[in-house]
Amino acid sequence: MRILSATALLLAASACVPQPVAPPAPAPKPVVALPAPPVTAAPRGADWRDWPLTPGDWTWQRDTRGSIARFAPAGGPARLALRCDRDRRQIILSVDGSAATTLTIRTTSIARALPVQPNGGNPPSFAATLAANDGLLDAMGFSRGRFVIERPGASTLVVPAWAEIERVTEDCRG
Fold this sequence. Notes:
Residues 1-22 form the signal peptide. This is Lipoprotein. The protein is α+β, with helices and mostly antiparallel strands. 20% of the residues lie in helices and 33% in strands. A hairpin with a 7-residue loop joins strand 2 (66-72) and strand 3 (80-85).
């Protein structure tokens, strides 16, 4: 009986020992929305012929002075225009912007700086005048896939060399 009493006493004593309790779960951390990282242009390689094209397409139309080719994003204003003044046998090259005094055109065969004048308008632009037989026009039209127009104080335009350039040129040459 003593064994039975000792066992009962041990069982009663073990009931008084606190059982281990799991620690409380940590409170959930509040969800904080982080700002999106700034959008930056993809780094350009050293060779402009590998740069991505500026978004846009060329359009051509006849007008009272000759014809005009415009390079513009869908539904947006022209970034670049070539207008034939047939009577003067000149092509007016207009580029969007307002701060430049020169622009540099680079093709696969020619690189040339052109002086420009403010052209007014909304949005503002500036223009250079070229003779219809200027070889730079052919270089732009036949450049391998693209040419660039560098403008101080504005982004460089990387423009596809499409047939509309040569169409305006040929309209002016007669």
